[in-house]
């Protein structure tokens, strides 16, 4: 059972928490208790349920996100995934009834990514667009809805623009999470975006979308007359920029630097830096 729990990769879901904090930072006075429940529901149950389902169908032998040496899939994993699905949906319904529909839709789409009869993962462009939309824009708006916003409020430029921005940042980071799995993905027939782009192309692609995301976010803050947020974002973004460019330079010199260890470090730095920036904005 412990191996099955490891394959749920709960710590890895923390890498997606910048979207949650970014969403809350867009509110003037978020409810702390409701925010805590949303955080637990999303990061302890929703994302791990998706991770576990992915592991169940992939049956990876090499490193995967959050696990350098994943254990073998066992009979406990699938029931655990179903249990996490049910808990996530019930928890969402308790927070706000219609939120259960949002979460249920997210869980279904995340399963289409790995399910062998659909396997979006085999389609580089489709899978990238689906993942970055649902993990970014969709979960950004779902968080706001869970915090009590109306549909009318969600459709305002104040919220739609940063929601779109969150997907742009994920378009920049998502291929980097695939950069060390080219061989295993090719053997399985999964044509991931990073595999199609190659190592050099992956860094170029990520650079473009990180840049676009930064431009859109800064424009949003200026439109909202939040100049201090621009400075906070730029300051906390420096570690991400420095590591990214240094890693890209090393990978140009030797392809073996595009490995699991460096990819996870990139994830850690970007996740913690952006989360810190958005948390600072909430309290600021």
Explain this structure.
The chain has 284 residues and is mostly helical. It is built from twelve helices and no strands. α2 (17-25) packs parallel to α12 (260-283), α3 runs antiparallel to α4 and α5 (99-114) runs antiparallel to α6 (124-146). The longest helix is centred in the last third of the chain and has 31 residues, at 193-223.
Topology:
Elements (H helix, E strand, L loop, with lengths): L1 H6 L9 H9 L6 H27 L18 H19 L3 H16 L9 H23 L4 H4 L2 H17 L8 H7 L4 H31 L3 H27 L6 H24 L1
Helix pairs in contact: 2-6, 2-12, 3-4, 3-5, 4-5, 5-6, 6-8, 8-10, 10-11, 11-12
Distinct helical segment count: 12
Separation of termini? Answer: 43 Å
- Structural class label: mainly alpha
Q: Output the radius of gyration.
A: 18 Å
Average pLDDT, all residues: 89
> Count of DSSP E strands?
0
Order of helices and strands: HHHHHHHHHHHH
Which consecutive residue ranges, at least 5 long each, have pLDDT under 50? none
Percentage of residues assigned to helices: over 70%
**Percent of residues in beta strands?**
under 5%
* Largest sheet data: none
Shape: globular
């Amino acid at each position: 059972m412990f191996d099955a729990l490891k394959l749920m990769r709960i710590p890895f879901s923390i890498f997606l928490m910048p979207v949650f904090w970014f969403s809350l930072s867009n509110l003037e006075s978020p409810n702390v208790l409701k925010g805590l429940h949303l955080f637990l529901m999303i990061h302890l149950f929703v994302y791990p349920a998706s991770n576990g389902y992915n592991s169940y169908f992939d049956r990876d032998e090499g490193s995967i996100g959050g696990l350098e040496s994943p254990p073998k899939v066992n009979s406990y994993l699938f029931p655990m995934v179903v249990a996490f699905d049910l808990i996530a949906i019930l928890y969402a319904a308790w927070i706000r009834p219609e939120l259960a529909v949002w979460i249920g839709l997210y869980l279904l789409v995340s399963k289409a990514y790995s399910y062998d009869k659909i396997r979006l993962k085999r389609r580089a462009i489709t899978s990238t667009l689906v993942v970055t939309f649902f993990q970014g824009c969709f979960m950004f708006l779902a968080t706001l809805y869970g915090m009590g916003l109306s549909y009318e409020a969600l459709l305002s430029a104040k919220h739609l623009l940063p929601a779109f921005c969150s997907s742009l940042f994920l378009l920049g980071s998502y291929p980097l999470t695939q950069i060390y799995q080219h061989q295993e993905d090719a053997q399985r027939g999964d044509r991931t975006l990073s595999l199609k782009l190659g190592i050099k192309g992956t860094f170029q692609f990520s650079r473009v979308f990180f840049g676009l995301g930064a431009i859109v976010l800064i424009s949003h803050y200026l439109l909202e007359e939040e100049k201090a947020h621009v400075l906070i974002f730029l300051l906390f973004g420096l570690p991400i920029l420095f590591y990214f460019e240094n890693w890209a330079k090393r990978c140009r010199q030797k392809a073996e630097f595009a490995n699991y260890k460096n990819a996870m470090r990139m994830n850690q730095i970007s996740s913690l830096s952006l989360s810190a920036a958005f948390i600072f904005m909430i309290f600021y």
